[in-house]
Amino acid sequence: MLMRPALSVIDMIPNVHRTPALAGLRRAVLAGRTKSVRLSSDEKELAFYDAPVQLTSPIGARMLYDLYQDGRLKLKKTPQKSIPALEAYIATEAEFRTKVADITAADAARQSREAAILANPDCAQPHELTSRLIDRVMSRHLGHGVSGRMQIAGLDCHRFLRMGAAPEDGRSRAEEETLCWWYDDHGQCHGTPP
User: Fold this and answer.
1) Of 55, 36, 35, nearest to 96 (Cα)?
2) What do you get for the CA distance between the two ends of the chain, in Å?
3) What ranges make up the beta strands (E) of 118-185?
4) 67 CB-near residues (< 8 Å, 6+ apart)
5) pTM of the model
């Protein structure tokens, strides 16, 4: 896991009041600074993820540690001089950044490859075919909302659009369903034929 739940990182600080610490961490990350830590806009994105379960990275943990050292966290008892668990998590920042860079590079390569396939469907390899890719290629070359057949990766690929079942409440219209499928070199059908 790249990021940990923020409360589990906060719990690495003994005797801390969790809710005010979480609010303080969120404010510090949004501001992008604490007393001795300044974050770039990219680092702000990597430091804290606000979702139903808030997550924080070693970058956010570094900000939390700075808040602790500065006495800006509400504690139940006097602060300790060192917090080994939090310091160990902060020490993984370089590894975290490497993993993020790898994921970002892989995503950019995937998007680049998909753009190349959209421009020239013949350059695709059979193992790259998915229903989503077929739908995107056909939308690009045949138009949106069009059923049809096309050669992609040297294989016969199909897209069929049909109206789904009408909802029972009668208030909304039926959803359109897109079915994409293809046959491999062995005649095996993949995807969702009608």
Assistant:
1) 55
2) 39
3) 148-152, 155-163, 176-183
4) 21, 24, 25, 28, 34, 73
5) 0.76
